Amino acid sequence: MGGFCLADQENTLLRVDGVSLQFGGVKALSDVSFDVKKGELFSLIGPNGAGKTSMLNCISGRYRPTEGKIEWRGDNLLKHSINDRAKLGIGRTFQNLALFGHMSVLDNILVGRHHRLKNNFLTGMAYWVGGARREELAERRFVETIIDFLEIQHVRNEPAGTLSYGLRKRVELARAVAIDPELILLDEPMAGMNLEEKEDMARFIIALREEFAMTIMMIEHDMGVVVDLSDRVAVLDFGRVIAAGQPEEVLADEHVKKAYLGEEDEVLDALADEQEREIA
Ligand SMILES: Nc1ncnc2c1ncn2[C@@H]1O[C@H](COP(=O)(O)OP(=O)(O)OP(=O)(O)O)[C@@H](O)[C@H]1O
To answer: Residues in domain ABC transporter (predicted)?
Structure first.
């Protein structure tokens, strides 16, 4: 199965169509198709090495697909550079934290915000005339809103590298939110977190949709989180989409269960838990 059909073209924000990606002899992605609709939370799941991060990298611009199309609001996304994709409204977080450890939390977030600013000679001149200064104050206010929203006021001046893992993940999310994206790509937002940190992160992700009206595409291994938060799910295995649809029906799919055989026990346990929940 190469993907699933587009039920509602008008609402489609991102469209991945027949994407393949090859690294030498390794085919990381084979004919992958799916769409992400405006306002939804779409999860991409699958066993280790299935191609999830590679797919996210194709969308954010880090990798260029060997074949296939990716469209953003109906336009060819692949012609745009990484920076342009951020300006178009696509933000992301990374599986392995990518913060500047020696810089303060605030400065890390401002780095994210910088992608959205028009920083050139003319705006430099305009600064002295007053217009750009007003713009800068508005920028500051926006960043403060994010700091409040993610409840990181108490560490705003701390070097990011000194924070707990859960807080660093939150600062990374803040930096991605700072570009004010329409679509935010989250690569394993809960990885390595304890239960309390996961609950906090889930609360923030829900609020991103509801309060900031963001569309979310998430890679996540925690099946409980996937079922609780996602509107739709696609499953990759060996670079191919093997199932897609509502979370509960996808996790009950025989191909999906088979794909996860041999994965860590936690994943299998989580799948079993979901099935018990479904039966109960
Ligand atoms: N830059 C690269 N160079 C060569 N091979 C790569 C590169 N990036 C990914 N791959 C290969 O592509 C395949 C898919 O990897 P990818 O990281 O996308 O999987 P994943 O589903 O995100 O895995 P995980 O859940 O473990 O993060 C793997 O075989 C991986 O080794």
So the answer is: 14-263
Domain containing residue 273: CATH number = 3.40.50.300
Question: Which residue's CA is the nearest one to ligand 1's atom 13?
Answer: 28
The confidence score (pLDDT) of residue 277 equals 59
In this structure, what token pair is assigned to residue 181? 């994206």
The length of the chain is 280
User: What is the distance in A from the centroid of ligand 1 to the CA of 259?
Assistant: 16
Residue nearest atom 14 in ligand 1 by C-alpha distance: 51
Question: What is the pLDDT at residue 9?
Answer: 64
Any ligand 1 atom below 6 A from CB of 48: yes
Considering the domain architecture, whether residues 57 and 72 belong to the same structural domain is answered as yes
- On the question of pLDDT at 213 being above 50, the answer is yes
The CB of 49 under 6 Å from ligand 1? The reply is: yes
Better pLDDT: 21 or 255: 21
264 lines ligand 1 (CB under 6 A): no
- Atom 4, ligand 1: which residue's CA is nearest? 23
pLDDT digits (tens, 9 = 90+) for 78-107: 999 998 998 899 998 877 667 788 899 998
Give the distance (Å) from ligand 1 centre to CA of residue 239.
9
Closest CA to 109 of 53, 150, 80, 138: 150
Q: Which amino acid is at 243?
A: A
Range of the domain at 278: 1-89+184-198+215-280
Distance separating alpha carbons of residues 152 and 75, to the nearest angstrom: 37
